[in-house]
């Protein structure tokens, strides 16, 4: 269908009466016919339209086609070439249809794509953009450009919509089939199948086989996606990078784990964009509730999230920077927003785990504590303080008390560790705070871990964080109120058990006295 308006419509306006904004009756009839077809999802007929209406229906053909198959997102009208985002979407479709990953669509793959989108097989070959194995990406894109030049926009739009794209040339929300409904203390992780797929993708783009993907490689990898998902916070600079800003395999997988933890739907969409071949439900798993982990006294998670608390100037940002192996600045720069750092850590059993550090700014601490479920997805919390400044230590202990109290009230208690930073300035001789908050909650907690990120001292702290997260029943601080509540609960449960036993004994005795005493 030609989407260009007919010449008779360019200088006149047959839709309205001259000098008014009143629609002509014949167009009202045509509009009713169009809306009837749309409302009832049927082709409809022109039997209720007058014959002399047909001449001006070309305008409606133009308008209707522009609504159903808008040209603006697809191509530049001046050059009749595809727009970058359209190229990205079509490239993603090509990659998803290239099942053997040989860079071309074979006859079988091309026919399968045609049947999926148009319910018909290929009728003729394209001489341009074809190699010995089939239709190449260049030929695939050229085919769509030829269709656009012929004003066959419905061809491209049908293929895009069949593969889940909306009008913005992004995957629609309803196309993401996996359900991520979960309890607050459950998280989403990549499955082994998804990790293996990502490893293979990494190797296929590591053309120089140096074990790293440089920025140009990453740009090429995400070229089927509307945009790179890691160009902005919280993913930018959130993993170990090469000197040129690229990613090693562990850093590459760490960013995927971070994105899956924070935004599983976004992670799934990008897996689809780059050609994840299996059922999308096989890409993720929902972890067991952390409350259950605490009862079982072990965690089976592969990705642990650690909240990093502490007052300003305590060294939280330096702690994250050191975790990523970067040089630490000696000048202080305030961090007003939450920051993330993800890296692979080998636990005491030699198993690789992904540790995600989440820096909580002091200014955002009260807001975090105002949310009942704010600690639900926290596997372990650390409290960083400047070991040379007792005032900062007192503030850190106050935050520790608030977190302990919040965990007791919400039911989401977390293991806690204390990190005494900047030990290169002054080794702490007395770490107890001036107030009385520290003593009631110190039982069950490990001694403060001494670290100096400037000197690289105490880097085993990251292994200790993993070990604490794997044992969610240990290192949990208790307030005096929480301890009293737990003691009361235990007494109440014991009373119920004793009461039940006494009741059962009385019932048995009454049955014996009511019956034959010799049978008792």
From TrEMBL:
State the GO CC annotations: membrane
Q: Which residues form the EF-hand domain?
A: 193-228
What keywords is this UniProt entry annotated with?
A: Calcium, Membrane, Metal-binding, Repeat
TM ranges are none
Q: Which GO terms describe its molecular function?
A: calcium ion binding
The main place the protein resides is membrane
Q: Where in the cell is it found?
A: Membrane
Which PANTHER family does UniProt cross-reference here? EF-HAND CALCIUM-BINDING DOMAIN-CONTAINING PROTEIN 7
Annotated protein name in UniProt: EF-hand domain-containing protein
Q: Which organism is it from?
A: Aquilegia coerulea
């Amino acid at each position: 269908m030609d989407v260009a308006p007919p010449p008779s419509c360019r200088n006149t306006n047959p839709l309205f009466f001259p000098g008014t904004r009143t629609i002509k009756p014949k167009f009202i009839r045509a509009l009713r016919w169009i809306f009837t077809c749309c409302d009832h999802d049927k082709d409809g007929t022109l039997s209720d339209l007058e014959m002399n209406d047909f001449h001006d229906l070309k305008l409606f053909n133009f308008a209707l086609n522009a609504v159903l198959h808008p040209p603006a997102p697809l191509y530049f009208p001046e050059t009749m070439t595809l727009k970058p985002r359209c190229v990205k979407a079509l490239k993603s479709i090509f990659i998803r249809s290239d099942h053997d990953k040989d860079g071309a669509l074979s006859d079988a793959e091309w026919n399968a794509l045609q049947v999926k989108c148009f319910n018909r097989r290929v009728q003729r070959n394209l001489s341009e953009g074809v190699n010995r194995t089939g239709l190449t990406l260049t030929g695939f894109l050229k085919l769509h450009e030829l269709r656009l030049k012929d004003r066959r926009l419905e061809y491209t739009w049908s293929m895009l919509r069949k593969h889940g794209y909306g009008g913005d040339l992004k995957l629609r929300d309803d196309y993401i089939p996996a359900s991520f409904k979960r309890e607050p203390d459950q998280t989403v992780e990549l499955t082994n199948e998804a990790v293996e797929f990502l490893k293979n993708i990494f190797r296929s783009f590591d053309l120089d086989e140096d074990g790293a993907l440089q920025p140009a490689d990453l740009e090429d990898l995400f070229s089927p996606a509307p945009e790179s998902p890691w160009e902005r916070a919280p993913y930018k600079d959130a993993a170990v990078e090469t000197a040129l800003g690229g990613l090693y395999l562990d850093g590459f997988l760490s960013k995927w784990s971070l994105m899956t933890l924070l935004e599983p739907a976004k992670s799934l969409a990008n897996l689809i964009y780059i050609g994840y071949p299996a059922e999308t439900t096989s890409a993720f798993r929902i972890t067991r509730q952390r409350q259950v982990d605490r009862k079982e006294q072990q965690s089976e998670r592969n990705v642990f999230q650690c909240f990093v608390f502490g007052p300003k100037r305590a060294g939280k940002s330096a702690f994250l920077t050191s975790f990523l192996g970067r040089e630490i600045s000696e000048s202080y720069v305030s961090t007003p927003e939450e920051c993330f750092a993800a890296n692979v850590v080998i636990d005491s059993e030699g198993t690789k785990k992904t540790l995600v550090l989440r820096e909580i700014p002091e200014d955002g601490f009260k807001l975090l504590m105002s949310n009942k479920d704010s600690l639900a997805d926290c596997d372990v919390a650390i409290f960083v303080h400047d070991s040379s400044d007792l005032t900062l230590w007192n503030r850190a202990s106050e935050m520790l008390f608030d977190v302990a109290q919040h965990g007791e009230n919400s039911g989401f208690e977390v293991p806690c560790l204390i990190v005494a930073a900047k030990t290169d300035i002054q080794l702490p001789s007395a770490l107890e705070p001036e107030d009385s908050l520290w003593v009631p909650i110190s039982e069950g907690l490990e001694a403060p871990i001494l670290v100096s990120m400037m000197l690289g001292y105490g880097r085993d702290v990251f292994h200790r964080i993993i070990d604490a997260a794997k044992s969610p029943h240990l290192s949990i601080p208790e307030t005096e109120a929480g301890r009293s509540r737990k003691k009361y609960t235990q007494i109440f449960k014991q009373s119920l058990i004793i009461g039940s036993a006494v009741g059962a004994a009385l019932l048995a005795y009454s049955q014996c006295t009511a019956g034959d005493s010799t049978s008792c």
